[in-house]
Prior knowledge:
By secondary structure, the chain is mostly helical. Helix content is 79%, strand content 0%.
Amino acid sequence: MATILIVAPVFALIAAGYASVQFRFVSEGAHKGISEFAFSIAIPALLFRTIVVSEFPDVSPYRMWGAYYGALALTWIAALAISRFLRERREDREDGVVFAIGSVYGNIVMLGIPLVLSALGNEAAGPMSLILSVNTPLLWLCGILQMELVSRKRKGSVLSVIRPVLADLVRNPLMLGIGFGVLWRFTGLGLNPVVDKTIELLAQAGSPAALIALGINLFRFEVKGETPSVLAMCALKLLAMPAAAFVLAKLLDLPPTAAGVIVLFAAMPTGANAYIFAAQYQRLVNPVSGAVALGTLLAAVTLPVVVMVVAR
Length: 312
């Protein structure tokens, strides 16, 4: 029953966002404004306040990164192998890179943050921030560099490829919320009660707005394209990656909250950023779109199981 109380409201808000477009209460384009509010204002405020006021367990970032990105690397390698098997009659390795991105790039912001905080509480904010602070730049860099390598189209230095990603990182509101939260926490000044209440009210809107935006956003994703590819990406993302993360978290002896964050983040379905990557290179656009849509639906079944495992 406790698991249902954690997971059901999350997916109910996603369904409400989808239904609001389906029944034309809002336009399909409404997700842009809601998403901008959630990810540029409300969720950065949530991360800032949580980092400043919460008590965090003592955990090594290297062990956390080792567990999460170790699981991600194993899943990436498996995805490349499976993609090659599915496309054994084609020599195009660029599809394999996009297939791998679709198999590991989870929706850890829109869906992950609300669910982790709901399941594990504010003490999960520290471990969660460690993953969020490097996830997007690391995956984009790995994806771009491997794509350039297999396509052999890279011109100029590696720095010319990395620089735009780093520039986006510096301006990313989520990264700014995490960064300023860490810096303010180190000052030891805390938050003035009026300021704290103001930020708290703003932060409270973050998770619901993100979930509503996710539901609206799902309206443009369809389960279409190559069925074996869609199913393989969903299986790798929803089953293989969290299983690998669970094993690595145990091997690295992570404390329960940190291990829970790692496994839950690993269990998130394929996110919209994977679709953006596919669209950028015009590779596997339909299968990745299908993985986003079908993966989110299937996550309503798989995530309660994962929550039960990490909550024990």
